[in-house]
């Protein structure tokens, strides 16, 4: 009787959905644990100053310089889209003098960091994950360990640090481009003068906003690098494993960016 | 004694891949570990060099470095040949301040000369043939003067001449640095030309221990099946 009941339960859709959910949840906890473990390892290594300056510079170049075109394009285009939707309507309703303020607050507080984070994840995060995953499946990570070098410190520290250092610069540049393109778009779509736009641009912006923006950018940069490196580091199973690790890195980074952004919003603007 | 393995057990989930094996390798001795695919040969090497933890038993090694030559070379493809060979000298905590740049350059040249590849310092691994990559990985492995060298299928995928060259390097390295060496291999030429002793693994257990000559005598049903590459015998291939 009990066996028949067990058999029936195992065939039921609810059981299948629930067991699948448990598998996904277990994988979620496992990944979260690995990211936390690697994070602690990286912080310890940084505190012990186990930093390879040459490698750090190379990673900064990769993170900051090579990602700029795509990041500036994405933030710039988002600003154009927002300004084209908002400026015309605000001018029509008599609020033209506040378009600059609205655009600046939106870009500095949210759009600049979030869209840069997404762009960096797509370009740099995926590349970090696939690089480390390839090294893992071709035994290069094992070779580092056998040669007596701490593979986590060697691979993670320059990558995570470069993300933390370069992301604020990327976000500042992207935000400047976003604000400027907002002005150009407001002029083209709503006939708003540059003077009217920039007169209000600084109205709603405080030093706190800039500070939070930089802090948020640094945490996004470190998080994207840490997640991407961890997903790549624990890859297994050849080419398919590299693909899975890269996908996982991108998905986890996207989610982490949104969650972190929510945390920052609650902590600083609620 | 350079390596002593006592009652080693390793399980992956519920499957026992190494089941209570013990052996010793002396300085200057080459031990070949043979067996069909999936018999646990490479796992033994990974356990000895600490890449994976074991469940029970003991692995005792003399003080000094353990080096490993990987099956597919495992060269760092973003680094030049020189940077690959000098990696441990530049990155290892205890070695990074020991050598100047000029000394490192000289050591790299010496090691490349030893494996017959002088003048390729600035090339990247992707610019080298499989045999050359394997020889560079030899040079990288011996740069720290290890007293134990582990070879994971060093001649797999190589043409007969490259295999002979690699086998000669294993023998000459044994003489030059008097290291204890373990060679995991399927190839009879590698066994007969390099090994002083052979152990055969099947299903995680040692089913034969002896010299290469004794292996070739086929007194044991396992060795008979292995040497004749027969499908009939006590060893069943895993699907």
Question: How would you sum up this structure in a few lines?
Answer:
The complex is a heterodimer of chains A (270) and B (239). Chain A is mainly alpha-helical and 270 residues long. Helix content of chain A is 87%, strand content 0%.
Topology (elements, then pairings):
The complex is a heterodimer of chains A (270) and B (239).
Chain A lengths: L1 H10 L1 H35 L5 H13 L2 H25 L6 H39 L2 H7 L4 H40 L3 H8 L5 H27 L4 H32 L1
Helix pairs in contact in A: 2-7, 2-9, 3-7, 4-5, 4-7, 5-7, 5-8, 5-9, 5-10, 7-9, 9-10
Chain B lengths: L2 E10 L2 E11 L4 E5 L6 H8 L7 E6 L4 E4 L11 H5 L1 H5 L9 H14 L15 H13 L5 E5 L7 H18 L2 E5 L3 H7 L2 E6 L2 E6 L1 H6 L3 H8 L11
Parallel strand pairs in B: 3-7, 3-8, 5-6, 6-7
Antiparallel strand pairs in B: 1-2, 1-4, 8-9
Helix pairs in contact in B: 4-5, 5-6, 6-7
Spell out the CATH superfamily of the largest domain in chain B.
P-loop containing nucleotide triphosphate hydrolases
C-alpha Rg of chain A, in Å?
23 Å
Low-pLDDT stretches of chain B: none
User: Could you report the average pLDDT of chain A, rounded to the nearest whole number?
Assistant: 92
Quaternary organization: heterodimer
Number of strands of chain B: 9
The domain count of chain B comes to 2
Give the overall form of chain B: globular
**Biggest interface found:** A-B, 14 and 23 residues
Please describe the biggest sheet of chain B, giving its number of strands, its sense, and whether it closes into a barrel.
Answer: 6 strands, mixed
Please give the share of residues in helix of chain B. 25-40%
Average the pLDDT over all residues of chain B and give the rounded result.
89
Provide the CATH top-level class of the largest domain in chain B: Alpha Beta
Work out the helix count of chain B: 9
Structural class based on helices, strands and sheet pairing of chain B = alpha/beta
Number of strands of chain A: 0
What percent strand of chain A? under 5%
Helix % of chain A is over 70%
How large is the share of residues in beta strands of chain B?
Answer: 15-25%
Radius of gyration of chain B: 18 Å
